[in-house]
Amino acid sequence: MKLAEAKRLSLPAILAVLGHHPLKTLKNGHELWYLSPFRDETSASFHTTYRGNLGIWIWNDFVEGGGNVIDFAMRYFATDVRGAIEQLSSLAINSDKSENSAFNSPKKGLNKVVVSDRQPTLVLTQTKRLSMVLGQTTALSNYLTVTRRLDPLIASNYLVEVHFINSQSGKQYFAAGMKNEHQGYEIRNPWFKSTVGRKGISVVKGKFGTNVAVFEGFMDFLSALTFYQRIDVRKFEQLIDDDVIIMNSLAFQQRTNEVLLNSHYSKIELFLDNDLPGKKATSQFLADFGGITEDCSHVYNSVVDFNEFLINRL
After folding, report:
1. Domains of the chain in sequence order
2. Whether this model's pTM surpasses 0.90
3. Residue 270 φ/ψ, nearest 5 degrees
């Protein structure tokens, strides 16, 4: 199966094969709502929608974000693009799109697929110090320092090497990760991003805790440190001394608000994305916290986020 063909697969058909069935159907079968296939929950927060103008199904999850069929398979099976295509090929889903293909019956041969009523789980096996030794290149160090342009010492100070296993496939993986408030890990490697354990915000405590900086993801936080270390040492030291909240998903804006309210900060600096969701979240923070809040996204106003700015700058 080729990439273009995989992207046109029916996501509802894939979900059905994997044991996930819609709780609610809207828009004549072109929008379906499910309990999230990524975690246990009691209210549907995952939905998939057919984009007729593009001929593809897209999905959105309240916590995990969203994307196309390939993005779903990468997250669900904890794999890269090639692995996602292999997994989708093994399901033998019909790639032909018709008006009622949301409910297409699986092809013969699907009895070979093991269907479980539990979502696949990324299980932590170990964490260890992130190796960023000068002169020694690893897949992770190359990804963080060459692809993402992060300072190696900064990366090693805040990240760990996370090893985990996909309990469905039995395959083992590793990635760079940062711990969140629920003792889970937000992980990134050259092929995918995900969460091991329960997803949540990450809080990095500074020396003083009187001010706080808020970022959407840890790549942007580490990018800001890398950038300011080079061009504004005073700002760099301020970020080190202040608390930092990494939201890990805009779905955690309410949780972020709770931390901000309970911590009684004197100043809140926002480094959110320059896209519509990021701008909307920034506006809400400004409305909720008023004069103590500063929108700092002007620093990278020509691009979407701080990491993209750093990559283009260096």
Report:
1. 3-112 (3.90.580.10), 121-199 (no CATH), 201-314 (3.40.1360.10)
2. no
3. -105, 125
